[in-house]
Specification:
Blueprint: E1 24-25, E2 30-31, E3 36-38, E4 43-45, E5 50-51, E6 56-58, E7 65-67, E8 72-73, E9 78-80, E10 85-87, E11 92-93, E12 98-99, E13 102-104, E14 118-120, E15 123-125, E16 130-131, E17 136-137, E18 142-143, E19 148-149, E20 154-155, E21 163-167, E22 170-175
Parallel strand pairs: 1-4, 2-5, 3-6, 4-7, 5-8, 6-9, 7-10, 8-11, 9-12, 10-15, 11-16, 12-17, 15-18, 16-19, 17-20, 19-21
Antiparallel strand pairs: 13-14, 21-22
Amino acid sequence: MNINEHKKYVGHGNGKFSKNDLKKIGNNVIFEDHILVFHPENISIGNNVYIGHNTILKGYYKNEMTIGDHTWIGQGCFFHSAGGLEIGCGIGIGPMVKIITSTHDQDGGDDVVMFNEIMFRKVVIEDGSDIGIGSIILPGVTVGEGSVIGAGSVVTKSIPPYVIAAGSPAKIIRKRK
């Protein structure tokens, strides 16, 4: 497709929501101010969850986002669940973390990458993990149970359980246990 050709774009709403719009919501869920939620019908949130101000939960018309019990999400995060997003229980997610579950096929043949097919890949953050401030988790990644991702890391590949990983791209620094 030529860059000057027009593609039809559709919106996903304005992000305003009520708790009743969510697929499931547990007890004691705290939403700070200025949170945007898109496609809340595909988002499930467990008990005792804190979501910091200015966070965007970008559900998608297909696939789901689940956030488990006892999870803390810092301010200014962006979670996109087009490929599916599963955040376990007892997770700490620092401010400004980005989790992305889709990308355009960079080898799709079109000169304009944005016009290539969208590739969807689920992200899983397993129980007891901690994601440091400003980290980016890319499509298809699993962060293993009890693992720590250092601040500012870019996680391009899955991380095994009970390790500390950091950097861009994130590499294992040491085992936790």
